[in-house]
Amino acid sequence: MRSPQNTSCSMKAETTSSFKKKYFYFQLFLFLLLQLLFTLSLLSYWYLLPQSMQNYCPPKQVAPPVTPVFIILLWTWPFNDLYSLQGLRCLGPWVREANCQITLNRTWYERAHAVIIHHREVSLMPSKQLPPEPRPTGQRWVWLSLESPSHLDNLAAMDGLFNLTMTYRTDSDIFTPYGWLRPRQEQENGSLTQPPFPKTKLVAWVVSNWNEDSTRVKYFRRLQPYLPVDVYGRNHLPLPVKNQQRVLSTYKFYLAFENSQHQDYITEKLWQNALKSWAVPVVYGPPRHNYERFLPPDAFIHVSDFKSPWELATYLMKLDADEKHYLSYFQWRKHLEVVTRPGWFQEFCKACRILLEPPTYRTLPALSKWFS
């Protein structure tokens, strides 16, 4: 016979077991109900989707396109004044489908898209110094020159070889000036209308190539008796390059006399030696109207404005004594500032931009006639 105590424990165990079974079936029912509701919701969503979305397949993962490289070979570096091109690549908002890599390595000739050739270094023996022919299909040659026609040898040998021009002339395919003016960024103030350096001397002239038979030296010889001029350069006063701008900035006027007179041939004599030094340029070169394409008319003095060197000398002496009139030659600086070419990289990147434009493959049959 069971004791009352054992009977009571047995009844409790049966009750607990019955409760667990009921709880298990309840959880199973609840799980199945939730699964049913989820399936019905998914079917409803699929039924309401547009047919195009029902057939949607995710796109395959595609690697980003590789930007092609446009190779520009510098066959000759201007004046052999070499700089490192390590890591130089021209990139910018104007580069859409390619970027340019500029190289001096001639072994890349066959795969170069364009070749830039500075005239002076190939003018002695063009047939031996120019790149080999026939050139790779589609390759364009760019003729580069910063010197005037008066100082170029064998110019006619370049006829029929080149596709684009790169010179100081505004009608070049790639315009490469010695300097230019741009709108001033900072606010206008009075200090911009007078030289920042004390002007203690009158007139300076730096001459690297003195030739008594040249027209500029002949004009100077006629001017010299009436006007004191400090002449620097070979066989004249010494002027180290590192001190040049500091010395020239002490002069009120600078003789920006070009070595020859040709369209748009306005060199560093004006941009660097005169304007960067805040000296009023007295110019001898192309006609006044040509200078006015690049400068305000009151930014310089042209020798053609005077009937004789004596009249020019008299005018400069009067300006020296009339500070107000002299300072009127700086009024344009309120709104404009002088920019000179910082180096060749900027010019090569400009060539890159133009070469990347839709190509018009042409040949210049009479380059010598055009440039002369």
TrEMBL record:
Record keyword Aminoacyl-tRNA synthetase present: no
MF (Gene Ontology): 3-galactosyl-N-acetylglucosaminide 4-alpha-L-fucosyltransferase activity; 4-galactosyl-N-acetylglucosaminide 3-alpha-L-fucosyltransferase activity
This protein's GO CC annotations: Golgi cisterna membrane
Subcellular location field: Golgi apparatus, Golgi stack membrane
Domain Fucosyltransferase N-terminal: 71-179
Major enzyme class: transferase
Keyword Manganese belongs to the record: no
Metabolic or biological pathway, per its Swiss-Prot or TrEMBL entry: Protein modification; protein glycosylation
Domain named Fucosyltransferase C-terminal: residues: 198-370
Membrane topology, from the record: Single-pass type II membrane protein
Catalyzed reactions: a beta-D-galactosyl-(1->4)-N-acetyl-beta-D-glucosaminyl derivative + GDP-beta-L-fucose = a beta-D-galactosyl-(1->4)-[alpha-L-fucosyl-(1->3)]-N-acetyl-beta-D-glucosaminyl derivative + GDP + H(+); beta-D-galactosyl-(1->4)-N-acetyl-D-glucosamine + GDP-beta-L-fucose = beta-D-galactosyl-(1->4)-[alpha-L-fucosyl-(1->3)]-N-acetyl-D-glucosamine + GDP + H(+); an alpha-Neu5Ac-(2->3)-beta-D-Gal-(1->3)-D-GlcNAc derivative + GDP-beta-L-fucose = an alpha-Neu5Ac-(2->3)-beta-D-Gal-(1->3)-[alpha-L-Fuc-(1->4)]-beta-D-GlcNAc derivative + GDP + H(+); an alpha-Neu5Ac-(2->3)-beta-D-Gal-(1->4)-beta-D-GlcNAc-(1->3)-beta-D-Gal-(1->4)-[alpha-L-Fuc-(1->3)]-beta-D-GlcNAc derivative + GDP-beta-L-fucose = an alpha-Neu5Ac-(2->3)-beta-D-Gal-(1->4)-[alpha-L-Fuc-(1->3)]-beta-D-GlcNAc-(1->3)-beta-D-Gal-(1->4)-[alpha-L-Fuc-(1->3)]-beta-D-GlcNAc derivative + GDP + H(+)
Transmembrane portions of the chain: 24-48
Keywords linked to the UniProt accession: Glycoprotein, Glycosyltransferase, Golgi apparatus, Lipid metabolism, Membrane, Signal-anchor, Transferase, Transmembrane, Transmembrane helix
InterPro entries noted in UniProt: Glyco_tran_10_C, Glyco_tran_10_N, Glyco_trans_10, GT10-like_C_sf
Pfam families given in the database record: Glyco_tran_10_N, Glyco_transf_10
EC number: 2.4.1.-
GO biological process assignments: lipid metabolic process
PANTHER family: 4-GALACTOSYL-N-ACETYLGLUCOSAMINIDE 3-ALPHA-L-FUCOSYLTRANSFERASE FUT5, ALPHA- 1,3 -FUCOSYLTRANSFERASE
Family designation: Belongs to the glycosyltransferase 10 family.
Protein name, as recorded: Fucosyltransferase
Organism annotation: Sarcophilus harrisii
